[in-house]
Write a structure and sequence with these properties.
491 residues, alpha/beta, TIM Barrel, Immunoglobulin-like, 2 domains, 9-stranded mixed beta sheet, 8-stranded parallel beta barrel, 11 helices, 21 strands, 24% strand, globular
């Protein structure tokens, strides 16, 4: 029995409906726009993180003077604003014309290059005054174009994963924390000065930490000692690394919880426990550019397992009272696909078939602004019960074991509300092994090369549709199979 109380626990801000859209330069391409259009139309994503891609903006004129061409950047930002997204802008990458060297480039991809044959220059600037000027000119431009009122609602982040060689100082080994720390502190200091020349109202932060807490702690010490502006701390949180599947480690939301506790311990130790945290990348597993060809276990990204994982993660972060301002899923591998269901970390397949994880984002977007008390007598049922000021309810519920395996029985549960709901409309949506699950249907039909008709069938299966709409209901009966996720609204 599940009982939803009318007692409000607290006001609950939506921190979970965000994503990193990768690659940024797909914003100007039809396939990228198709994804962004769908997310905007469905209301599934509120905040999008993209790169400023300074390498597309800066160049040297015939006299060697630094020049700016914002046209491509403007096209991207114009489109995102038109679609109603709030933005987190990662200031990077390092343009060749101001980099210390052009020899330290990485693909930051499973392939030899990034999207459109580009590479990421991992070098620091040859002169930090140049980096400061770039940050100033870019910020000045977007404030003049879009207005301070809008831009001050966004978040500006200095670089990405500067604690690892794939993004910063690739010539050094991963354990060269001190060398990277010294340069990143200079990078952030110049970034902070450049933006504050434009306005103190603009929200800034870093370091988009990949993994090394000693790097995070050292940088926070530098911020405190120099009294630098810091409005948020950004960290990444992946449940596990793909190679760990071969070491008998299993997926578990508790992995992400433990990661966050480690982040909090470091942040508190260095005196920033009251600073908001943005998880600007999260996932059940890292390795956005790898799929089942590298690790068969990554196929769980295609099924109801990932949607249940997401719903359970929201529950755990709320009930642990974590100070999370935003949590953004990283959509990687989107341009790497050659077939539909291969285990990449994205919302849609090659033929634009919506995955369960995408539909879970739609369900989570319907949650209301007040968290309610609730009672449940099954340790494998996890809920986020909410309502609004008009007593409209939205309850997100998932049924999952510790490792999201099929090691718990299918059960029937009854949901009741403290206040009678007989005169209200009840709507239910479901994602489970048999419902809203194109990958499972694809397996069931034994499809190899899908026909146009089969693609339409799978696309329709991926369209989120209510499994019940009605009135006159006093209690709600649910069939819960392993990793089933439901949203119940009462309006």
């Amino acid at each position: 029995m599940i009982k939803i109380s009318d007692a409000v626990v607290k006001k609950q801000e939506n921190f979970w409906n965000g994503c990193l859209f990768h690659p940024t330069d797909a914003i100007e391409d039809p396939w990228g726009k198709r994804i962004l259009d769908r997310m905007a139309a469905d209301g599934s994503i509120h905040t999008v993180r993209i790169y400023t891609m300074f390498e597309d903006i800066l160049y040297l004129d015939e006299h060697g003077a630094l020049q700016y061409d914002f046209r491509v950047s403007d096209l991207r930002l114009d489109y995102m604003i038109e679609k109603g997204y709030s933005l987190l802008l990662a200031y990077g990458g390092m343009p060749d014309c101001i980099a210390r060297t052009t020899q330290n480039k990485t693909s930051v991809s499973f392939n030899k290059t990034r999207y459109k044959g580009k590479m990421w220059n991992s070098a620091p600037p040859k002169d930090y005054a140049l980096w400061e000027e770039v940050c100033y000119q870019y910020t000045k431009h977007i404030v003049e174009r879009y207005g301070l009122e809008r831009v001050s609602q966004w978040h500006m982040q200095c670089f990405n994963e500067a604690d690892i060689p794939w993004f910063f100082m690739s010539e050094l080994p991963p354990e060269a924390h001190q060398e990277r720390l010294v340069e990143y502190c200079k990078l952030y200091e110049a970034f902070e000065r450049g933006i504050r020349k434009v306005s103190d109202d603009i929200l800034i932060g870093g370091p988009a930490l990949a993994t090394f807490h000693e790097f995070l702690g050292g940088w926070l010490d530098h911020v405190r000692e120099k009294q630098l502006k810091l409005d948020f701390i950004s960290v990444h949180n992946y449940g596990m690394e793909p190679p760990q599947f071969y070491e008998n480690k299993k997926i578990a939301v508790s992995n992400n919880v433990q990661n966050h506790l480690k982040h909090l311990a470091t942040i508190k130790e260095h005196g920033f426990e009251n600073t908001p945290i943005i998880i600007d990348e999260w996932g059940m597993a890292s390795g956005g550019f790898v799929n089942r060809s590298v690790c068969a276990e990554l196929m769980r990204r295609e099924t109801e397992v990932f949607s249940a994982y997401f719903a359970k993660l929201i529950h755990h972060f709320i009930y642990h009272k974590f100070n999370v301002k935003q949590m953004l899923i990283c959509l990687s591998g989107q341009h790497e696909m050659t077939e539909d269901f291969t285990g990449f970390r994205n919302f849609f397949t090659l033929n634009f078939i919506a995955k369960p994880i995408y539909n879970a984002y739609i369900l989570a977007s319907k949650l209301k602004g007040y968290l309610l008390d609730a009672a449940v007598d099954n340790e494998n049922v996890f809920m986020v019960p909410t309502k609004d000021e008009k007593d409209n309810y939205a309850v997100l519920l998932t049924y999952a074991s510790e490792h999201l395996e099929e090691d718990i029985p299918t059960i029937e549960e009854t949901v009741t509300f403290e206040t009678s709901i007989k005169d209200k409309q009840v709507t239910m949506w479901c994602i489970d092994k048999k419902t809203t699950n194109p990958c499972r249907l694809h397996e069931k039909l034994g499809i190899e090369q899908p026909t146009e008709e089969q693609i339409r069938l799978l696309q329709e299966e991926g369209r989120l549709k209510p499994v019940f709409v009605g009135t006159g209901v006093d209690e709600i009966k649910l069939e819960l199979s392993p990793n089933a996720t439901y949203l119940i609204t009462v309006e």
